[in-house]
Amino acid sequence: MKVQEEILLGKSVEQLTDWVKQQGQPAYRGKQLHQWLYQKGARSLTDISVFPKTWREELKDYQIGRSNIYHRTIADDQTRKYLLSLGDELIIETVGIPTSKRLTVCVSSQVGCPMNCDFCATGKGGYTRDLTCAEIVDQVLTVQEDFQQRVSHVVFMGMGEPLLNLKEVIKAVKILNQDVGIGQRSLTISTVGIPKKILELAHRKLQVTFAVSLHAPNQTLREQLIPSAKYYPLPKLLADCRKYVEITGRRVSFEYILLGGVNDSSEQAIQLAKCLKGFQSHVNLIPYNPIEEADYQRPDTQSINLFRNVLEEQKIAVSVRYSRGLEANAACGQLRAMSQ
After folding, report:
1. Coil, strand or helix at 156
2. pTM of the full structure
């Protein structure tokens, strides 16, 4: 099935107004269309009851860019993992993470992922293509509709490497902010590090949170865990992160998955602290979430606490983030396009 060339989802109110005028409709229908797409979550133009019935009938086969829920899993903590079927029938994963005060969506930016990180289920499945802005925004609207609750936060931490699809990710950030109504500071873009792309993002001067998946305190181990690291040495990555802080005035968050017996020793904590000394940053320690395709182990609580304590003693801002949705294979590093 060919994806329709012109998709309405992902367009601004000005672009939607131009479109309705091209269809021979008055300009005010652009604002109506905008509201129904982004606030009411319309899945079809025939859903838009304020449009003339005859026009809706003419547009009944027009695809506005919504996916279908292929499969949904609900974990004990109420985290929901969705397999979404796209217009070309490819499958992506999205996760809705509720708490008492917020609803966070972990969105995918690619179908699969080309980075092949050794501990990550998504990378084991390979890469198919980039997602469009519409396909990214749709994930947020789908979760919002399913929970019947406004989404407050979005993290680009699902399938894919966001900086390899930066053009569409930036478009999606702007739509989520300006059209869906989510504050930029409630949006997080995560990366394992792509040469030149960190500075490209910095020069956009967005107010988003920027997170870098570090996972190792030295180049040798980082290459073992993240094959692409050989093309982007740790000193160069950290130098670009420091430039990011200088350009944007915003700190960098470093994600560090703790792998039992691999990167969780006190000595490695000291190495990590040396890398980040004098840095406007914050470290999120994430105990490893097991996957069938890798033999890594989750560290015990004592090792986790010791690693955190060493960083704190070295004056590094740090917190431990326990992933939600573990038993539904919806936690950090577990995403794969499988229904079981």
Report:
1. strand
2. 0.91
- For residue 73, the cross-strand partners are 81
Helix residue ranges, H only, 39-132:
53-58, 121-124
Could you give the C-alpha distances from 256 to 187, 242, 297, in angstroms and in order?
19, 18, 15
Distance CA 193, CA 56 (A): 46
Annotated active-site residue 332? The verdict is yes
What are the pLDDT tens digits along the chain (340 aa)? 334 457 999 999 999 999 999 999 999 999 999 999 999 999 999 999 999 999 999 998 888 999 999 999 999 899 999 999 999 999 999 999 999 999 999 999 999 999 988 888 777 778 999 999 999 999 999 999 999 999 999 999 999 999 999 999 999 999 999 999 999 999 999 999 999 999 999 999 999 999 999 999 999 999 999 999 999 999 999 999 999 999 999 999 999 999 999 999 999 999 999 999 988 899 999 999 887 767 899 999 999 999 999 999 999 999 999 876 555 554 454 445 554 4
CB atoms inside a 10 Å sphere around CB 300? 12
Q: Catalytic pick from 106, 113, 241, 332?
A: 332
The C-alpha atoms of residue 249 and residue 205 are separated, in whole angstroms, by: 9
Active-site hit among 6, 93, 255, 293 = 93
Q: Is 293 a catalytic residue?
A: no
Chain centre distance of CA 138: 13
